[in-house]
Amino acid sequence: MKPHALAEYLDALVRNEITLSTMIWGPPGIGKSSIVAQTAARYGFGFIDVRLSQLAPTDLRGLPVPEGGVSRWYPPEFLPRDGRGILFLDELNMAPPAMQGMAQQLILDRRVGSYEVPAGWFIWAAGNRKEDRAAVFDMPAPLANRFVHLEVEPDFDNFKAYALERGLHEQIIAFLSFRSALLHRMDPQQPAWPSPRSWEMASRLHGAGLDIAPVVGPGAAAEFRAFVSLYATMVDMEAILRGDGAGLAFPSEPSQRYALTVGLGVRARDARQAHSAFRWLADAAGGEWSQLFAMDLFRQMRARGQMGELAALVKEDERLQAFLRDYRGLLGVA
Known about the structure:
Mean pLDDT: 83
Distance between the termini: 32 Å
Strand content: 5-15%
């Protein structure tokens, strides 16, 4: 499933109070842990991230303490005691078999030793697959059979929506719109390679004027540098946003088209600039590029609370009304 489908599935588990233990599979760097943490934050839940690969069995079961002539197991302080939340066992299958065996009781019975997981807590886990070249152990069949298994794959549309929401660098978003195959490409020969997680780090480095090769690898970084060089020959985006784009031609080079279309959407600071860019693209670029621009733009306008003002401007524009007949759902107006 795609990341947004995973988020919706986890949301449904919470809303329906389904506390079945859930295992999320997928390659590294695609946001599995982030989606779980975001789910907890959305509901105001507690969130405990436990890395079993870094623990010994006694760390989870607790320490034996003599009490009245018998041993009582004192559970670790990091396990939840009350309230509601998500107990997240990240990188579960990187834990050795002995540790996975200890976790089996926690996952199946919601208890280990003398400790019991509070009723309001969900137990979710995540791990990488062997084909991801991760240093993982086989999950014992009895443990695997106790999970709801969800498999998630990287998806550019999901990443783009996230990147726009988080304000990632315009040139990172534009480049990946043009070269979406580089969103996630593992390279076993390199310590750094492209993934949604590393592109988010690259955005911070690029914004500071630093080379992004240390996080996405030399190959992806070289392609990105070549793409950024196109900005030197780009048409004047600020003129278009001001409404002074008459006479400016839409580029013929595909990479420049992506850079310009994404750039206008990211740089539009208010409804009037958004309307000017939309009108220019509808006249100069045609349906495909205008639709790409509109989908990104409307998402941002809604997030900023500026959609009503933009919709009013579009309603008064006969040219854009003609364009939107087939895409009225984008604006959410009748």
